[in-house]
């Protein structure tokens, strides 16, 4: 018994030393061991009300602040607890990814299948987790995402303005010179994505991936058709405020409005 106890003490001491070394490598030579951890907030949306209550409580016990609805304090991550299958909620995932491009997005699904993981990741999720995964593991994976981010993510902009043009994300509204421009949902999403990247050429492949979660195919002209309709509605003729970039995609000019 004494031998077993001695081995157990050596094993425990070894694990403790290993964790200390990992934290030291992560924090850097000059980090203070007494520094208090950042309090992280996760905004959880459950497609089946009440189904994730116990799961959220377990995460709270691991030190993660859980919100079930938008608060005045911006979250550090958005979690979708979806039942029964991810495929039924791809539209919601795309909308969140467009709205908060830098906010970590995690999908949680009971009885997770390989197809669920592929679909969620292709649409824009940063991680996909089985609901049966222990809370300690989930919290560790969230912290790993946060370590790789640049700290707390500021609230995503709800309005973009360029000269006489203004875009309003929440209302899906567009005004040009004080006149309201009627756009379809798809047309607005293309315009918003281009405006967010104003001054940079955005490829058709990137637009298609961000909007529909699909790989680009040369025969797919859906993005070109939306750009054509946008130009017509915005009166973008010779000004080329939404410019075609040869062998790439489209560029939204921030200075010509």
Key terms for this structure?
four-stranded antiparallel sheet; five-stranded parallel sheet; alpha/beta; 8 helices; Arc Repressor Mutant, subunit A; Rossmann fold
If you consult CATH, what is the topology of the largest domain?
Answer: Rossmann fold
How many domains?
Answer: 2
CATH C-level class of the largest domain is: Alpha Beta
Average pLDDT over all residues: 77
Radius of gyration: 23 Å
The secondary-structure class comes to: alpha/beta
What is the strand content? Answer: 15-25%
Number of strands: 12
Spatial sequence of strands, sheet with the most strands: 2-1-3-4-5
Low-pLDDT residue spans? 18-37
Helix percentage range? 25-40%
| Form type | elongated
Which architecture of the largest domain would the CATH scheme give at its second level? 3-Layer(aba) Sandwich
Alpha carbon gap, first and last residue: 81 Å
Count of DSSP-assigned helices: 8
Largest sheet: 5 strands, parallel
Which series of helices and strands comes N to C? HEHEEHEHEHEEEEHEHHEE
CATH superfamily of the largest domain: Response regulator
Q: How is this structure best described in words?
A:
This protein has 8 helices and 12 strands. The protein is of the alpha/beta class. It has 2 domains: 41-147, Response regulator (Rossmann fold); 159-252, Winged helix-like DNA-binding domain superfamily/Winged helix DNA-binding domain (Arc Repressor Mutant, subunit A), CATH 1.10.10.10. The chain starts with a helix and ends in a 5-residue tail after the last strand.
């Amino acid at each position: 018994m004494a031998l077993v106890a001695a081995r157990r003490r050596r094993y425990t001491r070894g694990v403790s030393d290993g964790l200390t070394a990992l934290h030291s490598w992560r924090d850097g030579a000059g980090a203070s061991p007494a520094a208090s951890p950042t309090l992280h907030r996760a905004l959880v949306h459950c497609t089946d009300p009440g189904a994730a209550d116990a799961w959220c409580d377990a995460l709270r016990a691991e030190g993660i602040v859980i919100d079930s609805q938008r608060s005045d304090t911006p979250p550090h991550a958005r979690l979708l607890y979806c039942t029964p299958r991810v495929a039924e909620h791809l539209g919601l995932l795309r909308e969140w990814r467009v709205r908060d491009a830098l906010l970590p997005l995690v999908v949680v699904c009971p009885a997770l299948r390989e197809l669920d993981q592929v679909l969620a990741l292709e649409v824009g999720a940063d991680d996909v987790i089985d609901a049966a995964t222990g809370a300690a593991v989930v919290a560790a994976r969230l912290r790993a995402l946060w370590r790789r981010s640049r700290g707390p993510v500021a609230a995503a902009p709800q309005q973009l303005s360029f000269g006489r043009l203004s875009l309003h994300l929440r209302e899906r509204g567009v005004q040009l010179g004080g006149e309201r421009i009627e756009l379809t949902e798809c047309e607005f999403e293309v315009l918003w994505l281009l405006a967010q990247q104003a001054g940079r050429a955005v490829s058709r492949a990137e637009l298609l991936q961000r909007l529909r979660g699909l790989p680009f195919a040369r025969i797919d002209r859906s993005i070109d058709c939306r750009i054509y309709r946008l130009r017509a509605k915005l009166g973008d003729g010779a000004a080329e405020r939404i410019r075609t970039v040869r062998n790439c995609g489209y560029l939204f000019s921030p200075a010509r409005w």
